[in-house]
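Protein modeling request. Please complete all fields; requests missing the sequence field cannot be processed.
Requester role: graduate student
Desired output: 3D structure, token encoding
Chains: 1
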Amino acid sequence: QVQLVESGGGLVQAGESLRLSCAPSGRMSNNLGAMAWFRQAPGKEREFVAGINLWRDSTRRYADSVRGRFTISRATTGNTVYLQMDSLKPDDTATYYCAARRWRMDTTSATDFGSWGQGTQVTVSS
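Delivered output (126 residues):
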């Protein structure tokens, strides 16, 4: 079992920045292969935002809509993952979810991630 705890959401104006954090815990938290961020806006499906391998190569993947503005990274020790969000836009408004899986970051499908956090709200005003 893996528990994921997100933090860092909030209300900001367009152009500002936020940093989200996701800390895994539990018996399997040291056996994860990849972690990712998804988001879901009201009335829309959950969509992939960014993901990172937790193995040696730390390969990263980004959705086209956030590439160049968002950066996913991990702590130097442990498996805490961060999402630095810069140049935020009103379209980035959503609930952001942290997700984890035991295998590499070779998928962007939400159904391939078995562990999820409770979500943190990000609201960007124009």
